[in-house]
């Protein structure tokens, strides 16, 4: 079981001063996450989504964090992969540079960035986003493995060029795909990459999504693999606030989630602007139910079918409360098939001290339960999908690779497991060029 923290840089007061402070706060949280024993941080790319996400240049944020940390993995995900957001060669170049400077700590996640607000900003054709994401992943996988990239696909033609620099990890950093629907889970499995399962639906839905992913893995033939290595890692979102006062933690967490749900509804579903106010003494659970009812009423007014997913972001059954509450919730996610718990802590109305205290509670009580205590047995510490697909053992003979910390080279990253090799896919040449050295990717 792995543990990570995911950042969108969300804020309820979108002034310049508050925006700048939230970005600095996210850096402080990321640095503390390493000290508290988290395995990874993730930073999600979005554009022009006021309130919901101010993380428009995650590669810069992550480079800043990498220079202040030594061992925590750097999750550059998700990256908006449609070509008008990011040309795949530029993604490969930037990500390789970050992998190099971080000492081989990078993971790369792909997504569509599919809101009208974002696609209209950059001239993205929404009808092509799924195809462009897949082709981008295929290009990146090859760019990192071939001495010269030459690619002639359905959407892009690239004449022979060396793509520089090469990443520190060989053959390249692990690849992931953001997944919120069955179609994207199947796509991730067929491409041979990990799933970043977003959403607030909870353990029951996570178990169903894991079944979809596993079924697609069982049926795939390797023809769509985007790399010579397969990553079957299954990461799931875990909204959480943990404090000594569990009732206060629940109030703060549910209020933060309500803001999150309203802000995402504003940009994805055309709802009104999110409620920024934090009112002392409010029954936040009741406010959450009321907000969900308003969504249902709006859908009825527009003759739009109401589905379980319509109000999933208003489901408040998450890791809010005491450390014991969080442990119990994580156990449910583990039993549902999670390989990694992505903690969503930084929500728009949650103050920095509550975020920092939550990280401390997880580091001191929750994570040790699963890595050292009774929850550790059978939790799985091998590489991507090892419990289900037999990942290779750690490359213990590989030389340690130091990260570039704020004061120069830091201590070496901890031991790693390599994803297993895959059969050649439809793209033909997928093996790493001879003469390349370096450490294999780990999760």
TrEMBL record:
Low complexity composition bias: residue spans: 384-403, 421-436
Entry-linked SUPFAM superfamilies: Bacterial luciferase-like (SSF51679)
GO CC entries: cytosol
GO MF, one example: monooxygenase activity
Top-level taxon in the UniProt lineage: Bacteria
A Pfam family annotated for this UniProt entry: Bac_luciferase
Domain Luciferase-like: 1-339
Keywords, alphabetical: Monooxygenase, Oxidoreductase
Region feature Disordered, mapped onto this chain: 369-443
Keyword Oxidoreductase: yes
Matching InterPro entries: Bact_Lucif_Oxidored, Luciferase-like_dom, Luciferase-like_sf
Annotated protein name in UniProt: Flavin-dependent oxidoreductase
Organism (species): Streptomyces xanthophaeus
